[in-house]
Design goal:
single chain; alpha+beta; Immunoglobulin-like; three-stranded antiparallel beta sheet; globular
């Protein structure tokens, strides 16, 4: 390795290390316990504690009524609710109900899309968390070919 290449490598490594050190710990935090939850009730307690959860028509949950292949189900969640901090997608009958978490900053538009697995016909929930409460909407999805090992 030449001296020039060695210096470049060292500078890249130093800049990368400095960037990682300055990242807030919150950015690296994960909801690992929530992703390991085996039922919806324990998942809700893990994610939201004692925060009130109320049904809301202000959330749009787009997910097909019938999923022909449960391994790849498109989901879109959007809302105009002010101060959205987090959007979660939960599938009640999955072995691990939490399918996705999106942490949003105050400057983000609360509109997310992803693809999830749905193992069996189930209720799919979209949960929108603000600083003081959680709003929820849900829809039943029928699965014809299983997605979670089926």
């Amino acid at each position: 390795m030449t001296m020039k290449r060695s210096r470049r490598w060292f500078l890249r490594a130093a800049v990368t290390a400095a960037a990682l050190v300055t990242l807030p710990v919150r950015v690296l935090a994960r909801a690992t316990a929530a992703f390991k939850a085996k039922d919806t009730d324990s998942l809700m307690r893990e994610l939201f504690g004692d925060m009130p959860i109320e049904a809301s028509d202000a959330i749009t949950l787009k997910v097909p009524d019938i999923a022909e292949n449960g391994a790849v189900v498109p989901v879109t969640v959007s809302t105009d609710i002010e101060g959205v901090q987090q959007i979660c997608v939960v599938v009640d009958n999955n072995p691990n109900p939490l399918s996705a978490i999106f942490n949003l900053s105050e400057h983000c538009v609360a509109d997310v899309s992803t693809r999830i697995k749905i193992g069996d016909s189930s209720i799919t929930r979209a949960l929108v968390k603000t600083s003081d409460r959680v709003y929820m909407t849900m829809k039943e999805v029928k699965v014809t070919i299983g997605g979670c090992g089926g």
